[in-house]
Amino acid sequence: MVAHAHLSDADLDRLFRALADTTRRDIVARLLAKGAEPASVSTIAARYEMSFAAVQKHVAVLEEAGLVTKQPKGRERIVRGNPERLAQARALLARLEGLWRARFSQLDAVLAEPRTPKEKS
Amino acid sequence: MVAHAHLSDADLDRLFRALADTTRRDIVARLLAKGAEPASVSTIAARYEMSFAAVQKHVAVLEEAGLVTKQPKGRERIVRGNPERLAQARALLARLEGLWRARFSQLDAVLAEPRTPKEKS
DNA sequence: GGCATGTGCAACCATTCGGTTGTACGTTAT
DNA sequence: ATAACGTACAACCGAATGGTTGCACATGCC
To answer: What is the mean pLDDT of each run of 10 residues along chain B (121 residues)?
Structure first.
């Protein structure tokens, strides 16, 4: 499975860049939302006040970031959310937090030394 | 505690924007890394080939995003990582994935149906 | 066929970004 | 006091962003 293939720096740049826009986060959220179904680009565009082309470009950015896939269906393109990429982004953040916690357990040892041995983790 | 205060759209824009750069992710990673200690701006800058001013601006971006804090100490500014913000970013991604999973449980019900529901929307 | 719809793409524009160099200023060291 | 260090900030530059309008083209409907 391709699931755990970790992303290049450029991939991560694109991923977080794609998430760094309120409109794009909203598009992703609505695609993933409970009652929501995959929607065509124009259906998505109808929700926002900007031009169709602007929304189309947002979707393109999301697609390049891998957060979304586009599937041709007749004359329209059906857009689906891809939670896999979300998970990968989350994994990176978790890894960073993990580094932090590892650092802390080491710090705890130092702080715990002079006095109460409390508990060893 | 301020832990669960959820961030504004602008805050999230800044947060993910800050993470959307390899150099900045590297800075955060090194600040959080196991053996690492809080470092001055120039110490951090020494690790990269770009100018000091460039790194200083990266740190400023990280600080505005809340991923890092700067504390004056003599003539230098000590930079520390802030895992709290990391956790908040992760929480948003988790929430989006949560939406997805909720959607799936509904979809599962549909798929588990003996035959395709004829109701066309 | 002819027309409306859905999409993509190019050109353009203002703003922001990531980088540079240079300057100013407070702090530390000699 | 003077020099060196650490930081901040401004001005500038090329490239990328986020938006616009307009046009081309394929598909679906009469």
So the answer is: 78 97 97 86 97 98 97 95 92 87 61 42 34
